């Protein structure tokens, strides 16, 4: 996302309050919601239509402390100990992506704090 953009209204400069998205090696960390495979968090490497290649992808099976994926992408989770996020995979190709939301650094730290869920 880069640096926050400013807008001037009647001579007053305004900047967005939201934190910039987390980045790694030029890749943007995002939450990707699919039509039928669920929700993933990871670094978007490539996108073509509804097909998205995500690196270091973690399925977000169940989360606690965020009402929506939008809130999860901005604020993270409030109760990481209650979340069910399995181990990340190196890469996954998601073929029916219907929503891609950039994640703030604050939210990424929260997602990373969730212990690996195992059955």
Describe this structure in words.
It is a single chain. The chain is mainly beta and 119 residues long. It has a single domain, classed as SH3 type barrels (Roll), CATH 2.30.30. The chain contains two helices and eight strands, in the order ββββββαββα. The strands form two sheets. Strands 3, 4, 5, 6, 7 and 8 form a six-stranded antiparallel β-sheet that branches. A two-stranded antiparallel ribbon has the order 1-2. Helix 1 (69-75) crosses helix 2. The N and C termini lie far apart (37 Å). The model has no long low-confidence stretch (mean pLDDT 88).
What CATH calls the topology is: SH3 type barrels
Which H/E pattern describes the elements? EEEEEEHEEH
Largest sheet: 6 strands, antiparallel
Low-confidence stretches: none
Shape designation: globular
The mean pLDDT is 88
Number of strands: 8
- What's the number of structural domains? 1
Task: Summarize this structure as a short list of keywords or feature phrases.
single chain; about 120 residues; mainly beta; 6-stranded antiparallel beta sheet; about 15% helix; globular
């Amino acid at each position: 996302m880069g640096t926050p953009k400013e807008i001037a209204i009647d001579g007053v400069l305004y900047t967005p309050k939201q934190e910039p998205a987390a980045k790694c090696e030029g890749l943007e960390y995002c939450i990707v919601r699919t039509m039928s495979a669920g929700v993933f968090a990871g670094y978007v490497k490539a996108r073509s239509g509804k097909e998205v290649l995500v690196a270091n992808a973690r399925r977000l099976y169940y989360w606690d402390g965020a009402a929506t994926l939008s809130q999860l992408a901005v604020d993270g989770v409030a109760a990481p100990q209650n979340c069910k996020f399995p181990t990340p995979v190196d890469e996954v190709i998601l073929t029916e992506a219907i929503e891609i939301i950039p994640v703030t650094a604050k939210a990424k730290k929260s997602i990373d704090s969730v212990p690996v869920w195992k059955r």
